[in-house]
Write a structure and sequence with these properties.
about 130 residues; four-stranded antiparallel sheet; two-stranded antiparallel sheet; 6 strands
Length: about 130
C-alpha cells in the first residue's frame, strides 16, 4: 500500500523541464492568494521536490522567492501564448498586471528587455 502511494505521488511531480500545467481560475497564487486567471501574466516555480507553485503576476513570484527561499528547480513565465524558462525570458515594463508589477514576460532577445535579476530587483526594492 505504501509503495502504491509513493508511486502515485512521484507520478504527480512536475517536471522542471516542461512548462507547468496551471488550472486557470482554480489555482491560487502562492503569494497573494488571488486566483490565477490572467494567463498573460502567470508564472510558476517548480520546486526540487516536484511541486508547482503558481503565481498570478511575475511580481508575486519574485516577492515569494525573497520571503520564502523555496528550493527552485525551475521558474517559468507565461506571456499568454508561450512559456519561457528563467534562462529564456525577459521583461518589459508598463503592462497592466493583476498585482501591479507591470512586468510582461517576453523573449529575452526583445530589445530593452529586463533580465530576471533586474525585474526581481525592481520588484523587491519597491519599484513595482
Amino acid at each position: 500500500m505504501t509503495a502504491l502511494l509513493v508511486s502515485l505521488l512521484v507520478g504527480c511531480a512536475a517536471d522542471p523541464n516542461k512548462p507547468p500545467a496551471l488550472n486557470w481560475d482554480h489555482d491560487a497564487c502562492s503569494d497573494c492568494g488571488m486566483l490565477v486567471s490572467e494567463p498573460a501574466h502567470a508564472s510558476a516555480i517548480i520546486t526540487r521536490d516536484g511541486k508547482t507553485l503558481p503565481f498570478d503576476d511575475p511580481g508575486c513570484l519574485f516577492r515569494y522567492t525573497l520571503k520564502n527561499h523555496p528550493a527552485i528547480a525551475a521558474m517559468w513565465f507565461y506571456d499568454g501564448t508561450n512559456w519561457y524558462r528563467e534562462d529564456e525570458v525577459g521583461f518589459t515594463e508598463g503592462a497592466k498586471t493583476p498585482m501591479g508589477s507591470g512586468l510582461q514576460a517576453v523573449p529575452k532577445s526583445t530589445p530593452g528587455a529586463l533580465t530576471v535579476g533586474e525585474a526581481s530587483s525592481l520588484v523587491v526594492s519597491g519599484g513595482k
